[in-house]
Design brief:
heterodimer, A: three-stranded antiparallel beta sheet, 12 helices, B: five-stranded antiparallel beta sheet
Chain lengths: 366, 792
Amino acid sequence: MDELNNRTQTAVAAIEAAATHDALDTLRVEALGKQGWVSQLMKTLGKMTPEERQEKAPQIQGARTAIADAIDARKAALDAAELERKLATETIDLTLPAPQLPKGSVHPVSQVMDELAEIFADLGFAVNTGPEIEDDWHNFTALNMPESHPARAMHDTFYFPDHDADGRRMLLRTHTSPVQIRTMVAEGAPVRIIAPGRVYRSDSDATHTPMFHQVEGLVIDKGIHLGHLKWTLETFLKAFFEREDIVLRLRPSYFPFTEPSVEVDVGFEVVDGRRVLGGSGDAPGHAWMELLGSGVVNRRVIEFAGLDPDEWQGFAFGVGVDRLAMLKYGMDDLRAFFDGDRRWLDHYGFSPFDQPTLSAGVGAKA
Amino acid sequence: MKFSLTWLKDHLETAASAAEIAAALNSIGIEVEGLEDPAETLSGFRVAKVLTAAPHPDADKLQVLTVDTGEGAPLQVVCGAPNARAGMKGVLGLPGAVVPANGMELRKSAIRGVESNGMMCSVRELELGDEHDGIIELPEDAPVGESFAAYHGASPVFDVAITPNRPDCMGVYGIARDLAAAGLGTLKPIELLPFAEAGDCPVEIRTDDPEGCPAFYGRVIRGVTNGASPAWLQQRLLSAGQRPISLLVDLTNYLMLGYGRPAHAYDLARLSGAVVARRAKDGEQVLALNEKTYTLDAGMTVIADNNGVHDIAGIMGGEHSGCSEKTTDVLLEIAYFDPDRIGATGRKLGLTSDARTRFERGVDPAFLGEGLDLLTGLIVDLAGGTATAKVEAGAPPGDARVVEFDPGLTARIGGVVVDDAEQQRILASLDFTVDASSAPWRVTTPLRRHDIEGAADLVEEVVRIHGLDKVESVPLDQIDGVARPTATADQQVERKLRRAAAASGLNEAITWSFISEAEAQAAGGGRWVLDNPISEDMKVMRPSLLPGLLSAVRRNLDRGADSLRLFEIGRRYLDDGEHPSLAFVLAGNKVARNWQSGKASVFDAFDAKALVLSLLEAAGAPVANLMVMGEAGEFYHPGQSATLRLGPKNRLASFGAIHPSTLRAFDIDVPVMAGGIHLDALPQKKGGGGFARAAYSPPALQSVKRDFAFLVPSDLASGELLRAVKGADKANIVDARVFDVFAGQGVPEGHKSVALEVTLQPGEKSYKDDELKAISEKVVASAARLGAELRG
């Protein structure tokens, strides 16, 4: 009995000390191979008496199990050591840069237009468009600016030598307001639309570019008045800037296509050299900034568009999209909008996944 | 328009502060663009007298002055103004003073080697106006040494913008009237200085052009002494930004700026015969007061005598008959000109003036005789002389417009309830005559309010005086439930494409709609050419988005960029209208120099193809049915570009490498790939109505792949082979890919080897050997029809 124990312990010790798979295999054959001493002992069991077998069998089985387990354990240890050695040779320098995936961006003007569409859709406004190459009837006459009107000259219009089939002079639209006329003519009333798009004036300096973007708003219905205009602008600006403290100041003004006409100022303060909208312009440290033009649609415009001004009335407004983008997202140079400088686009552009939604707030945080 | 608080108070009895007045002006529609207190901006400038003036030893146009500043020894000052001379009084800026116009701090300095201890200032330098013809000349009695701010009146100056519909507010008096209506004080009546009339006007005055000049009033004043204006008058003109010139000129300006009433004073000695308003003759010329000669035509109204034209009516007087220091007898002209004709003449001549601005918007037809008497009284009082009787040729329009007005309209379109009595009070305070005995009211408009055409205009009057801030916000009606979708199919496609392009790594740019003629030519020529472009580079409406993007590429390369992926969504402007499009460019490096390969790699035409296809797919186009064809245009490399069409004539997109000549024209020295999609050519997505997809469950059995290598003629398009193979057995073949194209060793001359991997999808049961064999035979047979031969 002691002999078996001793022999088993010696074998297990040798197995645990085996340095290679070959040495381990030799030890396995010595003990558990066909001619191995454990196998030989197993064979002796057949010739024993039942009593003797009952006593010896567990001892021999135990020795066999102990040796087999030791071999498995040693084998696993040798495998692990070998893998570790192999992996050690495969080390790479992961501080090296990975291939760069290109990162695209959406232009701020497009982003803001999508934001506007989202906000106004919630108020029941659709988005309409119209031609940029317009005729002077849609751009001026139908908006109550006859040929001799001083306001026409103030528009710095780009003209084409061409005339349309009705003899109307072709030009680049100076505002998005012609879409008012086209919408009313095409769709009748009631109307709730915004019309964003490119507009053109022959003007160029730090704050003016010959091409820029406007969004027009138009509501034609029954019983629409200045109070609705005020609510709509407040609601829109609060949603756009995601601030409840936006304060508007309405000032009487003049646009040929609205009567009464209202210029809208918004209160702001300068924080870290930037204009931040919010608060009354009369509050300490605040001032007013002119933001948009608006008014009750002039009867004549409604007539020009083929509707009955005694039945239908409404309001219209226009605001610079680039300007809204600058105020919200902090760009300070309008010219850079149209330069296509990749660095600027990377910096001020938006992730394609910043799709404006009402549930997340239409704006994309820095 | 600028005016001082002092001037305003000539007409308005008020205790309101400048800030309160500014707030009131804004609230009634007279926008205050600036409110400045000259006491602050003009500190450091004082009244000074030029004692001596001598030529600068080293500069022709400069003089060296000695200037008495009222204290201490006279200072030496170098001055470039032509009107600087000994004996005159002007405004001196001392070292330390900051020039308002440019923010420059004055210092003791040497100008061309001569010491200068300050600066004699012009009207523009002190931001009192635009004039820069010379330094300010102050009257004899200006006290030397007094601070100029104090002398100037030191009264806060308002800078207001008058909207074009309110010419009646283009004079201080008119502004005072509006303020009084708004409750800011009491309007003072116009003070007419009395004068005696002696004899009839010796000059015949008439209008031969009653259309262009319905009324021409005038009178002569003899024996005037034209000199410098008194301080009060100078102060008012300076606050308005006008340089005082001489009493007669200043008084006509004062009438215009103070009362919105342009007038003209002729030197009688320069006139001969009757003075007549008539049409100009074609080609007739006049030297105007701005020293430019204008050639007139028969559409323009002028004031002329026997010798010729003396005045471009309502716009600018003539140099020849203008008043000078020597003038002793003057003929005054106050006329009413047709606004449209003044506008047309001014536009044709490209000539603007304060008078034109007022006449073309419409002056007060009821203020001719009174205006003339006001001017006459001022001249007689200040310059002496004897006035003759007044001549009134013709008559200004006198029919007052009567507007039917339902006061309820104020609430209906103004959104604010103002009681009838208050509406009546407001209208009366603005000189409307209200007959409230009838319904609707009958409101007679003052003649000067050319802008009042209908009831809505009266609502505006009531609301602006009552206060727009009293208009309460009223929500628009909203539909029940969640807002309904509003975006059109086109708008949805555009939004999707924009974000798909950005998600593909492209930066969205917005470039000018107009490009140069040469750029437009390179893109096939532009249809729309501007008459009045801002520059030659922005002259033609783009027929393609690519020139603008290539210009952006060049600018980026110039700034050191070496890899660009730009796209734009915008319109192309063609003969048949405006076409929404998407275009992109891939320029320079696709992958930057890197440690793995040691070098950069550039884009190729397949990068452009991959992008075009993925964008088309995002837009819902049937990508699998597109044909790859040629004729992408001269902009592209002829052998490395293609179009994608849905049927031979329906071109959806193009892509490829930009032609090397195009790149050279744009000064670009890296390869550029590009692509474009015609958004209006995309087919509308089918099944737009429903959300449910077609029924589908993934096949239970694994697909099988088989490789084929074909020997084909070199010029066979691989796409055709692919199409033939895919179509060989549509029931079983679900995909085919080209995985190798090879020509050279082992491949016969004039041929190439194209290897395809074909994917087969079994249905209910796995393929048996003979079935696979049959499919392979179909593939080989189909390819053979294109001249392809299976390689052994």
